[in-house]
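DUF1146 domain-containing protein, pasting as requested.
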Amino acid sequence: MSNFSEISFRVQGAVTIGGLLLGTLLAWYALGAVRWDVFLKKPDSPPASLLRLLLAILIGTGIAGFIVQYVTGASMMHT
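Structure tokens follow.
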């Protein structure tokens, strides 16, 4: 494996992980606007927090997919 392709592979991994974290954080922030007391019996309980985290991860994965595809497409247009 050449040095350039190894660096490219590492950059792609870093972009993917960064996109996942950014997407999850954005989803967590957006889910803060939801009135959980309407949907849940105990909105401040640990299971409710876990549900919010799992929803943030699920939605964040979709956001991350968009971010990674956008960065990949933009880099293809640049070269």
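Note for the archive: Residues 3-78 form one domain.
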